[in-house]
Amino acid sequence: MNERDGGSVEQLEYRKLIKVLEQVAAARQEALYPALAEALAVHLGWIDAFVAENPAYLAPGRDGEEQYLTMFRPAFVEEYVERWRWNNPFASRDGVTCLTRHGVATLGRLRLRATGPERDFADQFLRRNGIDDMLKIVIRSPATGAVSTLGIPFDGARRAIEPGDRLMAATLGPLLSPYFGTELVPVSAPDLTAGERDVAELVALGLAHTHIARRLNVSESAVEKHLTLILEKTGCGNLTELTAQWKRRG
């Protein structure tokens, strides 16, 4: 691993790595994702990092329901889920093999053997949204064995993935595992109405208010009223915190 990535563990910038872990360790469980995203951006220069919980292509039986913790626009997440999810090169046989064996993979390397639809994912979807390459890290819960992935997009015009990034990623994944030891804390929501729960679920999936209204056959103003009540009842300060708290219902 070290030779292939052009470096050794001793060459890592440990001070930056420790800063990331300190910031994550200090975060409340329900605010883990925002703290992690900020720490990676500030200390490693990895902007817009996102988490996919229970990615189906790495889940036993491939029947997992992915949940996304991301700062990306809701329209980006919705398009990915509805059109591109299974054309993602990380879900290919090569991608799954690389992630399973090494815990790290990059889009650039997987693209060399990608199929036509997988290349379309990179060229038509990601590049249209300003992403030229992506680094993916596997994080396994030591307690439950559940799998999450940490994705870091790169804009080639500003910065490309370097060997040091891959080496840092391979080192960081296992170190983050203890903080993913349990599922994200669910919203304490015994007093949410059925309609409010439906809205919260769709917000957690990254859908925009317009799309939520269309899905539930209600007005946008009704969606906004639901969200106001949801935030009050759950004690969340914003939609990012609500998304970070909300977990998949059984």
Strands side by side in the biggest sheet:
2-1-5-4-3
Number of helices: 11
Helix content: 40-55%
Number of strands: 5
Derived structural class? alpha+beta
Our measurement of the CA-to-CA distance between the termini, rounded to an integer number of angstroms, reads 39 Å
Please state the CA-atom Rg, rounded to the nearest Å.
Answer: 18 Å
Low-pLDDT residue spans: 1-6, 184-188
Question: What are its keywords?
Answer:
five-stranded antiparallel sheet, disordered N terminus, 250 residues, alpha+beta, 5 strands
Tell me what you see in this structure.
- The structure is a single chain.
- By secondary structure, the protein is α+β, with helices and mostly antiparallel strands.
- It has eleven helices and five strands.
- The chain has helices spanning 14-25, 32-44, 74-84, 93-102, 107-111, 116-126, 163-176, 194-204, 209-216, 220-234, 239-245, and strands at residues 50-53, 67-69, 104-106, 133-140, 147-154.
- A five-stranded antiparallel sheet has the order 2-1-5-4-3, sandwiched between helices.
- Helix 8 crosses helix 10 (220-234) and helix 9 packs across helix 10 (220-234).
- The longest helix is centred in the C-terminal third of the chain and has 15 residues, at 220-234.
- Mean pLDDT is 82; it is low at 1-6 and 184-188.
